[in-house]
Amino acid sequence: MASLASTSKSASRCLKTSKAPIPPKPRLSTAVVLNRSPILTPNPSSFETAYHNYQYKIMRALSTPFPQHFYFAKGAALQQRFYNEEKDRDAKSFGVGFGKGGRLRLPPLPYDKPMPRESEADRTGDVKSLDRKGDRNLYLVLKNAKGDVWRLPQSSVTSEDALHVVARDSLVAQCGEAMDTWVVGRQPIGFLEEQENIFFFKAHILAGQVSLSSPEISDFAWLTKEEIGERVDSTYWSGVKDMLADS
After folding, report:
1. How confident is the model over 80-87, as a mean pLDDT?
2. Cα–Cα distance, 199 to 170 (Å, whole number)
3. Considering the entire predicted model, what is its pTM?
4. How far apart are CA 220 and CA 161, in angstroms?
């Protein structure tokens, strides 16, 4: 009996000493893919331009002539201007010189010119302006103060809050309260495993601008997908490029 008891004690000691060590708790981070959506319609491709020009010519060729005598008094200034506009439309569709007669010489009318598609930020190369690249998606990237390292807004998780809440609060802590942003959902859109496990959340900027309020961040920029690829390292880029829109 004594030998049996000693055997059981030694076995229990072996079980206690051979217990596997508890793995370290994983380090978590959240990152925000903050997007400024396009504010201009994209430029049509060469195929789209050719298609619309072809359809416009067919429409002009088959449309019923506008009854000018019903809407304009004969010889009135409006009738003369409409005549010139019709000559311009015919020239656009069928070439200069189409039809009889030429344009009438009339004094120019004042009118508001449309705003150019190229903004002042595009002309000066200001990457901090939200007015640049109006037909493209722009994303906020931050530069680390300790080195020439550009990344999406990122912060370590140090609280028990939900990840999307941590992502929103860290964005405010780094970029100030001058931006009105909206985190799209509670579920991350991507994941990247480095020294920390990074969960990415999509967000939109609705108004305002970045006002850096963290000593860890030295600079910021609003960049397109291709421009981000030129600034971040290749490993990081391969992990985030599929989260960004091509247009």
Report:
1. 83
2. 13
3. 0.76
4. 27
